[in-house]
Amino acid sequence: MADAFEKLQKTVEKHEKKGISNILPPSRSYEEQFHSELSMLSLILGVFGLILPLFNVLAVLFGMAGLMQVNREKMKGRWMAITGISLGFLGIFILVAAIILGVSFFQGVLTQFAGIEAIVK
């Protein structure tokens, strides 16, 4: 153990003579060690948004806020924000497609059987 310590001490002294003050790799900052809460919330809302459409818009909003927080504070979690935004937009697309298909199906059924007069009466 003393051998390893002496070897490290000699290496540090050698680097200090060359003008290199820090031979150890820089440690991560405090914020960089943690994931963004907004990004995590965006991912969770994006998954739930595939079931309940209200969560899709929230997933997109929290994902954008999470991306800004990750970039501003140098935190982890960029992938969660991007995934949450993607799932939010996917859920919105599925909802819009379902509405369009539902309306066109209902319209086709009405014109085939009775027309609009059946609803108005």
Any idea what the shape is?
rod-shaped
Please tally the helical runs, counting DSSP H or I stretches of 4 or more residues. Answer: 5
Whole-number total of structural domains: 1
The biggest beta sheet reads: none
Query: What oligomeric state is this?
Result: single chain
What class, by secondary structure content?
Answer: mainly alpha
Q: What ranges have pLDDT less than 50 throughout 5 or more consecutive residues?
A: none
Number of strands: 0
Radius of gyration: 28 Å
What share of residues are in beta strands?
under 5%
Compute the average pLDDT: 82
**Separation of the first and last Cα atoms:** 94 Å
Helix fraction bin: over 70%
* Series of H and E elements: HHHHH
Descriptors:
121 residues; mainly alpha; 5 helices; rod-shaped
Describe this structure in words.
With 121 residues, the chain is mostly helical. The protein has 5 helices and no strands. Helix 2 packs antiparallel against helix 3, helix 2 runs parallel beside helix 4 and helix 3 runs antiparallel to helix 4. It is 74% helix and 0% strand. The N and C termini lie far apart (94 Å). The longest helix is centred in the C-terminal third of the chain and has 36 residues. The mean pLDDT is 82. The protein has one domain.
Topology:
Elements: H1 2-18, H2 37-49, H3 54-73, H4 78-113, H5 117-120
Short description:
This protein has 121 residues and is mainly alpha-helical.
